[in-house]
Design goal:
535 residues; Rossmann fold; 4 domains; eight-stranded mixed sheet; six-stranded antiparallel sheet; 32 strands
Amino acid sequence: MITIDVLSAIADAVQKEIGKIPDTGCMKDEICIGADGTPTARIDKVAENAVLMYLERNAISLNVLSEEIGFVDRGGEETLILDPVDGSNNAIAGIPYYTVSLGVGKGSLSGMRLGYLRNLVTGDSYWAEKGKGAFKNGKRIKVRTPKFDELFVMNYTGSYSHPDAYAICKKVYSSRSLGCSSLEIAIVAEGQADAFCMNAENYVRCERIVDIAAAVVILREAGGEIYDLEGNVLEMGFDLDHRSNVVAVGSKPVFDYLIRGKDPVKDHRYGIYANTSLSKAADYTRQVMDALKGHEYILDSHIAGVLGMEGMPLKDMDVDIVIVVGGDGTLLRVLQQTDAMVIGINGGSVGFLAEIDRDHIKDGIERLLREDYTIESRFKLASWYNGEYLKDSVNEALIHTSSVAKIRHYKIYVDDVLACEMRSDGVIISTPTGSTCYAMSLGAPYMDPHVDALMVVPMAAYKSTSRAFVVPATSKITVESVLDKDCVIVLDGQEEIPMEGRTKVDFMLSDKKARFIRFDMDFFSRVREKLVNAL
């Protein structure tokens, strides 16, 4: 069986061969195209060849998955996940911060058994074997307990980084970007940093398994974990195609603070809001109250009246989290009245936005209390009519005829430029959140909530050429009612505002966010379960 000693010997061979390269100028020579379709520098190929030759000379039956050569089936039960030189740009620039990264395992990232990193200049070595702890230069290492007012984060902020990466810099005491993912994760593992964040705007710049496999074994054995941006424990197969943005942390609260904005310190105050038209609203609410025993909560005045208890209007509550009993419409109604985080208990039918099933209220609230969740932010849509600010929308704002079966004529402007004209029953301005609602029922596509865009969707348009279209979320969209006939503005199906003929409504990105508490399900799993497979 392959051991850490074997990986150390492979690293010796790589270090020796790289030492023979005359200078950094030779290191950067492009000598071929790698399996990932990008040019391979001399230093990468020299390192990869050193590994392959060592395996061959010593008759080591390991398959190989490498950044340069791709997958090589050598008849082994396990596969060596290899990044010959992680941080090769550092090497070429003469910066002593690059590694050979060696991981051994079966099938996927969760099946990794060994991880070994070596800084090819300093000789510092990190290693771990699953279930046996993590080490640096022979001394056991472990992640550190975070101090949230002193967070130190390794954070990629290069030319391909997402704008959200810069927001992280402003949330922490100090941040660095060192150009070598494997070592940056190892720094988290040894307790010298609290997190490593990679949030690239371009998918092809995200992390692959060859970049991080060895480091992840070391991190996990040191007591840390690595997540995708949805808060799911990272999993990857043995291939070069799958990429992911990642956050490696010593503890989950650091992830929640950096990515979801969850306050790591204060005790949460809870509000409870229920749709009293539900036949079992009182029963569901009592279950929530029982699960919240010992914690501070406030009842909305409507459900409080049903239960014969004291309460207050939701808009007056000073709470951090609102637990919402009802369907999607109830959640949207709550989000028009509060800026608190929300979590839904599905008392309706589909409950696309809800997180807790009505049959698992106790388990869901217990998970909420132990803060085993992430916070998903969705942008809101602001609406302006006749110079008056209307309520924000989470799903959509729409304008439609005030009379049944009466068509209207609309002009749509994007940033004050005429985009289209249409004759239709109405027009929807949908956020990505609302794309799985009314917009989708009109034949428009649904959008991943990470897409920063708005969608303009005609309602029963007279011409088949009138199609939905997408604009950046930062755009100002203006809808003009051309005819001297009344319309109605509807916000999230909750608020109706009369609109006179020959007037305009402006829609633009709100400075407020809707914050949903989420457990494990990603967006596309939610679509499959609650929309595609729903009755």
